[in-house]
From TrEMBL:
Pfam families: CAP (PF00188). It comes from the Eukaryota. This is GLIPR1-like protein 2. Keywords: Membrane, Transmembrane, Transmembrane helix. Residues 290-325 have a biased composition (Basic and acidic residues). Belongs to the CRISP family. Residues 285-339 are annotated as: Disordered. Residues 52-200 form the SCP domain. Residues 326-339 have a biased composition (Acidic residues). The chain crosses the membrane at residues 247-267.
Length: 339
């Protein structure tokens, strides 16, 4: 990776109009330098699926495993695994210098392997170099004593690096604003499968008194599997992936939609008004007939109401006549009584 080229203030100042003062020229140039210094950070670190990056750390792992002394009895040849690199990337995005808590959970760190091993490095982004970091892990061999199978200090990185049964590796480096007290940090994580499983007696069965030998491989075992639809469930944000189940559901929905359309096209010619509202069902002629019927009904209702009114009037007249008759009778009676 090439370092950033220095930018001269004099060259920057020539880009500004001569009308601007010296203060504004210097301020603009300083801002330009800061932008140049912070801009390429996203491109400085390699992507976890970059071929050159993968070849660099995989080849170095196999080279260092071949240099183990005493010689490795069952050291396996390491190959790249995309799922392990995705797990490394997902945990690195958390920007914490802590062990991945999902390494021993089934299908949380890898779809098939369990448990998964891990080596981690944190430092300034500008100082990151995959080869130097991996070699620093290997240098922990000086803390390991073969005779009593123990470490005088932490040598867990070395143990995982030369673990005999591990044959898959995936690494990723992530840029972070801050990790602990480190500003503009980089987290480099390598995951291994199968990982270290026992806390004690780590390497006694992995070494022999033979001279160093290159790890042996296996064509079937070393074949790359790309796990197209697998990503860690706990990754945030998680890539949107449509796995076979998702594709099946989408296909079923599409088939159901097409069947519904076909049924509508088949049924509608036989029942053309089945999906129409009541007021839109009839033809214009039928609607006129209905209007006439409604008008007739209205006329009949009006006639009925008029008849009722007339009947009420007649009843009122009859009642008035009765009242008059009763009054006349009463007056006659009163007259008779007076006589």
């Amino acid at each position: 990776m090439k370092a950033l080229r220095p930018v001269h203030l004099a060259w920057c100042s020539q880009l500004l109009p001569l009308v601007l003062g010296r203060f504004w020229k210097l301020w603009f140039c300083e801002l330009w330098i800061l932008l140049l210094g912070s801009g390429p950070s996203a491109n400085f670190l390699p992507h976890e699926e970059d071929v050159d990056f993968i070849n660099e750390y995989v080849d170095l792992h196999n080279e260092l495993r071949g240099q183990v002394s005493p010689g490795g009895a069952n050291l396996r040849f390491m190959t790249w695994d995309v799922a392990l690199s995705r797990t490394a990337r997902a945990w690195g995005k958390k920007c914490v210098f802590e062990r991945n808590i999902h390494l021993e959970e089934v299908q949380m760190a890898h779809p098939t392997f369990n448990p998964v091993g891990e080596n981690m490095w944190v430092g300034p982004e500008s100082e990151f170099n995959a080869s130097i970091v991996i070699r620093s892990w290997y240098e922990e061999r000086k803390k390991y004593t073969f005779d009593n199978d123990s470490c005088s200090a932490d040598c867990s990185h070395y143990i995982q690096l030369v673990w005999d049964s591990s044959y898959k590796v995936g690494c990723a480096v992530t840029a972070c604003p801050t990790v602990g007290s480190i500003q503009r940090a980089a987290i480099f994580i390598c995951n291994y499968a199968p990982g270290v499983q026992t806390p004690g007696g780590w390497l006694s069965n992995s070494f022999t008194s033979l001279p160093p030998a290159f790890p042996f491989g296996n064509a079937d075992r070393d074949q790359a599997i790309y796990y197209q639809f697998w990503y860690p469930r706990w990754e945030v944000p998680r890539p949107i992936v449509c796995d076979p189940l998702c594709m099946f559901v989408l296909l079923v929905r599409l088939v159901c939609f097409l069947m519904c359309v076909m049924i509508v096209l088949i049924v509608q010619p036989h029942f053309p008004y089945i999906f129409l509202e009541k007021q839109m069902v009839f033809t214009p002629e039928e609607s006129e007939v209905e209007k006439e019927k409604e008008e007739k009904e209205k006329v009949q209702k009006e006639k009925k109401s008029e008849r009722k009114k007339e009947e009420r009037k007649e009843e009122e007249k009859i009642e008035e006549k009765k009242k008059e008759e009763t009054e006349e009778e009463e007056t006659e009676k009163e007259e008779e009584e007076e006589e």
